[in-house]
Amino acid sequence: MRRPEQLDDVDALVIPGGESTTIGKLALLYGFIPKLKERVADGMAVWGTCAGAIFIARDVPGHPHPLAELMDITVRRNAFGRQLDSFEADLEVPALGTDPFHAIFIRAPLIEAVGPDVEVLSKLSDGRIVAARQDHLLATSFHPELTHDGRFHDYFLKLGKH
Predict the structure, then answer these.
(1) 6-10 long-range CB contacts below 8 Å, 24 or more apart?
(2) 137 pairs with which residues across the strands?
(3) 58, 91, 107, 148: least surrounded by Cβ within 10 Å?
(4) Does a structural domain hold residue 162?
(5) What CATH number should be reported for the domain holding residue 88?
């Protein structure tokens, strides 16, 4: 997508991992943030994975770059350390069933706090939040696209207005 009006042609949007600073700067430069907020208010589902979760968060302390501020979560960038500190973990995600979800965390953010309308979907074994949902918005600290498990993708597709 290169123009904000192209958002009118999609029913759901995944904002992937990458560099949240770059995502925010480009979204501001090309005028995507107001249009994205309009489409979300109209029911478009949005899923932020890793850097995408940072971009859709309402609050990212110390992050001076533009955010879409769509979801009532507070996120901390690079919460688990540097690239060398990346890891994998099996998560309990009751919304996806009883089988654990194998998650891959790469320079991952952490969802430090959630607002009253946000449902926590999964936590690490130490209680830190790594997946959450607010209406038709989804945030994951990890990269489900790097696994062969499509359950998060299926879950996301059911969130949007159809």
Answers:
(1) 7/32, 7/35, 7/36, 7/39, 7/44, 8/39, 10/44
(2) 46, 134
(3) 148
(4) no
(5) 3.40.50.880
Structural domain for 52, as ranges:
4-157
What's the pTM?
A: 0.94
Query: Could you list the active site residues?
Result: 50, 143, 145
How many separate domains does the chain show?
1
Please write the tens of the pLDDT for every residue from 70-96: 999 999 987 776 676 688 999 999 999
46 vs 14: CA distance, rounded Å: 6
